[in-house]
Amino acid sequence: ACEYLRNMPRGFEQNVRNMPWFLYFDIAYEAAKRGVIDTKMQTDKTITQVTNELAEYHHGELKKNIADLPRKCPNEDELNQFLQMSLAKEEQWMPQWYASPDGEAAHRKAFDRTAHEKFDVCSIDMDQLFDGVETWVGLLQK
Q1: Which of 19, 76, 98, 107 has a Cα at 20 to 30 A from 9?
Q2: Rounded distance, CA 65 to CA 141, Å?
Q3: Rounded (5°) CA angle 16-22-28
C-alpha cells in the first residue's frame, strides 16, 4: 500500500473531505431544500459540486472559514453528559489506558479541545444563516 501511494500518479484525486466540508454540504443541502438554489442549478450541478463551490467561495473570495458561520452548540450541561458517557466508554473499552496516570486527564483535555476549540460537536444554525436569504447569491454574500 505504501509503495502504491508513493508511485501514485500526480493529479490523482483523493477524498480529502473533513468536518468543515460536511458542514458546507449541510448548507448546500439546506439551500436546495429551502428553494434558495433554483431548479436549473440543481439540475446542472451535483450537490458535491455545489458544496465545493460554496466552500471555495467562502474561503477564497470572502476569506472566511466555518467558524465565521452561526453555530448551534450543546450547552455545558449537555457537554458534561457527553463527556461522562465518553469517559464511561473509554473506561469500558480501554481500562488499562484509562487507569493510567494520565488516561482520564488526557481524555478530558481532548474532549475539551473538541468541544471548545474545534467546535466539532456543533452544527450550523441554519435558521440564523438563512434568515432573510432568498437566493443563492444572497447566501453567498452573507
Answers
A1: 19
A2: 14
A3: 120
C-alpha cell at 57: 467561495
Is residue 60 located within the same domain as residue 91? Answer: no
Residue 74 · residue 82 · CB < 8 Å: yes
Pick the closest to residue 21 from 64, 66, 63 (CA basis).
66
pLDDT in tens, the chain (142 residues): 556 556 655 544 445 567 889 999 999 999 999 999 988 998 999 999 999 999 999 999 999 988 899 999 999 999 999 999 999 999 999 999 889 989 999 999 999 999 988 888 889 999 999 999 999 999 988 7
**Same domain, yes or no, for 85 and 112?**
yes
Examine the domain organization and report whether 9 and 58 are in the same domain.
yes
Q: Is residue 21 domain-shared with residue 85, that is, in the same domain?
A: no
Q: How many domains does the chain have?
A: 2
- pTM for this structure? 0.71
